[in-house]
Amino acid sequence: METAYKTYYAHAPKDVEHYSTEQLREEFLAQGLFVPGEVKLNYTHFDRQIFGGVTPTTEELEIVLNDSLGVDYFLARRELGVINIGGPGSMIIEGKEESMKKQDGYYIGKETKDVRFKSDDPANPAKFYVVSTPAHKIYPTVKISIDDITPKVTGEAKTLNQRKIYQYVHPNMCESCQLQMGYTILQPGSAWNTMPAHTHERRMETYLYFDMEPDTKVFHFMGEPSATKHLVMSNEDATISPSWSIHTGVGTSDYTFIWAMCGENITYEDMDHVAMNDLK
Q: pLDDT at position 265, please?
């Protein structure tokens, strides 16, 4: 049976300036990604990225998107990044099973036909966050653990944005066509995930915020630098960030997030910084 998903269409920045809070949330916020026993996906027309959650319990789960994508199987013309943010589990790729503890990741190359997701304990299921982008070439499938990554340490205490950036699907760790994916952990006492803000004119991005207490909120800022808006986000909410939009956030307490980018290149530093005085 085909996996259901929600479609998000592309929007011009001048249109978004006039959106109400509810319109903004409907068009850019994705919630309820991790439902026990289900695959919950979202398809954005911004660079045609697919993102969502796979939460197996008593049975293995797989993503089935054939007719919807006009192909014979899901990854016929796509690549896939995966990071587990839940309990221990495993992935079965072309018949080979690999254990997946929390913070383990995977890059899965184009034309991989059999990809299944499994939890060790249905009462504490794995939560596989998945991101897929169109691909033009086959690159090797690689398991990636946070233990094998040397994080990029950046930010300052005085600007409340000290953080460690773990680059999973990145040239430092594996080859990919256009997908980049990573895991950012804020240091105690920091609240901003990046500031000053920037845009990615040549790439779009999605953010998943998680490891948050029920009453913790993240104020995610978006929009053109001269016309900013915000989304109030809760634990395990995700958001779409178009290439023309800033994407920065500040939390009421600790949080972690996964970022995933795709577009013209895989150059992590390809960003357009916004001067603080240009933000409105």
A: 87
